[in-house]
Here is the input.
Amino acid sequence: EVASGLTHQQWRVRQSCCLALDNFLRGVDIRHELVEALPSLWEACMRVRDDVKETVRTAADAACKSLSKVTVRICDSSRGDSGQEAIQLVLPVILEKGMLSSVAEVKTISLATVLQISKNAGALLKPHIAKLVPVLIEGLTELEPKVLSYYALHVGAESEELQDKLDKARITASKGSRLMDVATQCLYHVDKGVLEDLVPALVPLLKSGVGLSTKAGCAQFVVSLCNRCGDDVMAYAGKLLAALLHGLASRSSGVRRSYASCTGHIVKNAKQSSVEKLIAKLRMWYLEKEEEELHHSAALTIHAMSRYSQDVVQRHSSEILPTVFVAMHAKAKPPSTDDEQNSLDTLPLWEEIWHENTPGTEGGLRVHHAEIVPLLVTILRESSSWDRKRQAAAGVSTVAKKLGAGLPASYQDSLLESLISVLEGHMWDGKDAVYQATADLLSVPVADDSDGKRAELRRKAVDSMLLQCKKRRYQREALQCSGQMLAALTLDRLTRVCNIVEPILLKKSSDSDSDNDGTPLERQNQRDHLKAAAFSLVGQAWPKDLSTIDERAESLMDCVIATLKSSSWKVRVAILNCVSEFAKKCDVSSMDDTNRSSLLSLGVMLLPAIGEHLTDAKFTAVQSASLKALDCLLSMSDEIQFLDDLDIKQSLYQQLMAVLKLASASSLHSRCTSLIQSRFK
Here is the structure.
């Protein structure tokens, strides 16, 4: 009669029945008839808890609390079969109607009841775990304070760093929740039979669960499930990995971290084919997609695999490590405003993966260069991303420097052909990395070139680089790399170099001010760096075994003398090094009388100009470069009588003695002493 009155049309009757039920349940003895009535009582109390009359709702709340206490007492593991029967009758009603109710108070009392039943029921819960665990995980979002969701929504629009910190705090709180404790206790009763129903219930939560806490909690539960059940999860690993991929593409960094960690645990129990599909997907995300979130997910996932399932990474190293090598040449992202590491900066993760799975950079390249080089070639030729091309070019530089002559000639050819094809294209951000890669690759000696094809390919690379020197953007980098290439090869490109550097060396300050941004000081620094690079290129472009002093050499030396006096210290150092290279490459023994006379005339003009900078105590670099240039010129004095002019000889001697007295660096002092003893006896 009381049960039927709970849904009576008159509110007074409903209220009286609620109060009567509350009094009845407080002192009732647990009988079989009461167990059978529990489902109908729960349905009626849930309905009347949302009554239009406030006094009825208050009475219904008291009745629900008493009903909850009685239910928890009945659903106890100590009651054996009666407890099992009670759980089988009551739990579906609470889960399906109470937990899914639109009334907040009904959800709260239902959740509290489920928690108490889970703690007391023990093994009796085993048949219901597949329904219970998803409800507990969904409850994580329900119990989370709504203000956190509000903050997450508004903070995320202002700062990714704050959003990331807030997500970490929310995930940490969800892991310590009572709901997660109960869900973890259920793991002790999970076996193959339970997995058949549990995994299909977890997959929708991973794919489309609502709320950060629910998704992160579900991922954490799956991790515990893998650690607990081990090989039993293998049959379901493919479905779980497919569901986790949806979350790895999420915009929330917290979800990506949780799912990446979960993936790292699952792969050790997954089938070979599932792991291969996952790796292919992650490679595609990084190499072909532009979204930072996908790059972040790829780094987090492979890092988690390396940390929790390193044996899997080792088995698939030929597929994973080439991508890692390319990724570790990405540019580091700038730090956040509080000098902390940018949350989307994946460079430290890639570097850690590489070093954890290889015997060092050089050792890793020796083992995996057969997979890395083809990937670099493919990116350079086919990738539509300029940033990937820049990373591949930086990777080529590393390969050339670390392996050197150990890099097979066929790989050198394919890399060089790819770099030349990129060099000849239009300009883009980061193309200077291609310049440096080409120069580093050409610095590697080639052992076998019987047909001369490799020499022809290298000449083509030099000519392509010299064309880049005429372009305004990255001009300084192109000049520097051209010099490095000419220094490594025996090529005479002095005429082309002169045509390139002449406009740079003769350009006045006012001619370039309108083409550069920045303050006057910044523009002056840019001009100085450009001139220094131009003079360095001239020095390296002098042909080896120079036996002819023609108009090119004379005009360049005239420019050297004219520029030396009025330039900044950086440009002066470059000019003096250019003179040193010129002197080193002069083959005096092969010169005729006319060329010797021309060389003598140049030396007589150069020596006083160099001597003036010996005593420049303000810049040690200028003094050191002056001593080097003077030593190189005077090394020819046995055949070219530079010091027959007593005025020049006396002036240089006095300047060298002044350097001895004022030199602060020991290297300057020893070099100056050696020069005086050998040339001014």
Summary: DSSP finds 34 helices and no strands in the chain.
